[in-house]
From TrEMBL:
Organism domain of life: Bacteria
Protein name per Swiss-Prot or TrEMBL: Quinone oxidoreductase
Key words, A-Z: NADP, Oxidoreductase
Gene3D superfamilies reported in the protein's UniProt record: Medium-chain alcohol dehydrogenases, catalytic domain (3.90.180.10), NAD(P)-binding Rossmann-like Domain (3.40.50.720)
UniProt key word Lipoprotein: no
InterPro entries noted in UniProt: ADH-like_C, ADH-like_N, ER, GroES-like_sf, NAD(P)-bd_dom_sf, QOR-like, Quin_OxRdtase/zeta-crystal_CS
Organism this protein belongs to: Mesorhizobium shangrilense
Residue ranges annotated for the Enoyl reductase (ER) domain, each copy included: 11-323
Classification via SMART domains: PKS_ER
Length: 325
């Protein structure tokens, strides 16, 4: 018997129940994993609250990112063995001590990266990878704006973008978060509670504005984010922590400077195995090089997942957070 967090109906953090589950034995193409660390992400809140429908219905075990040890391998899995260290993102069901997972979704964790680091960075780090290297290919000399700079993706992306030679502008809500972001690659951080970020970007760039805006906030930062872009700039909406962006006319993009807009997801970008391997390899390489450092700012016991969700939604967390089974 194993323990897991299960949801039987959508709601607040109180619907996260710590229960006994039977993980079973791996079938064709599967592995049984004992988790050593589990990542906490805003997408977990979306599934819990009902913003995203639960895959397969209820009861639902949330969580899309974890690291652990292979316990058993199923038929057809010849590149993994018991004892191997693995990590994954994008496959729901991580809030558990043990679970079955398709081997096609996992990658081996290299020496030099701890299980806690791997669990804290797979979803967030591969998100930063596709945003910076594929959605908009950031290069030296580019100027970027990233909202929620002190969040999990932000602290990774800020360091990585600086490593690529960009000027990195962020937004944050407090002095502590501003200092944290500046310690993780951000050249300038605007306190959006005290200053209009559009005016702040204009002042920082001398009116030239940004090549790209990365926005996981959603409703609260739209359409003002468009006013931070140069003509032909790109607006990248990859989350909605403050609620979804309301419908808007495509004509708005023309009026703001023939802008590009996209709503990418990691699930699509890394849907093919070769894309997953390349994304994970790029992430591991930049972390092992020291250019990007993974710091874990909060740890909660798995049984306290409700408290972790409450703190995440209440903006009482910074950077990466993990759950410990």
């Amino acid at each position: 018997m194993s323990k897991a967090i299960r949801i039987h109906a959508n709601g607040g953090p109180e619907v996260l129940n710590y229960e006994d589950v039977k993980p079973g034995h791996p079938g064709l193409g599967q592995i049984l994993v004992r988790h050593t660390a589990i990542g906490l992400n805003f997408i977990d809140v979306y599934y819990r609250s009902g913003l995203y429908p639960p895959p397969g219905g209820f009861p639902l075990i949330p969580g899309s990112e974890a690291a652990g040890i292979v316990l058993e391998v199923g038929q057809g899995v010849d590149w993994l063995k018991p004892g191997d260290r693995i990590a994954y993102a994008m496959t729901i069901g991580a809030y558990a001590e043990q679970r079955l997972v398709d081997a096609s979704h996992v990658v081996k964790v290299p020496d030099g990266i701890s299980d806690e680091q791997a669990a804290a960075m797979m979803l967030k780090g591969m998100t930063a990878e596709y945003l910076l290297r594929r959605t908009f290919k950031v290069k030296a000399g580019d100027t970027i704006l990233y909202h929620a700079a002190a969040g999990g993706v932000g602290l990774i992306l800020g360091q990585w973008a600086k490593h690529l030679g960009a000027t990195v502008i962020g937004t944050a809500s407090s002095t502590d978060k501003i200092e944290l972001a500046k310690a993780h690659g951000f050249d300038h951080v605007i306190n959006y509670k005290e200053q209009d970020f559009v005016a702040g970007v204009a002042a920082i760039t001398g009116g030239k504005k940004c090549d790209v805006v990365y926005d996981s906030v959603g409703n609260d930062t739209f359409p003002a984010s468009l006013d931070c872009l140069k003509p032909l700039g790109m607006f990248v909406s990859f989350g909605q922590s403050s609620g979804p962006i309301p419908p808007f006319s495509m004509l708005l993009l023309a009026q703001k400077g023939s802008l590009f807009a996209t709503r990418p997801t990691l699930f699509v970008y890394n849907a093919k195995r070769e894309a997953l391997d390349a994304s994970a390899a790029a992430l591991f390489d930049v972390v092992l090089s020291g250019a990007v450092k993974i710091k874990i700012n909060q740890r909660y016991a798995l049984r306290d997942a409700g408290k972790a969700h409450s703190d995440l939604e209440g903006r009482r967390t910074t950077g990466t957070t993990i759950l410990i089974p």
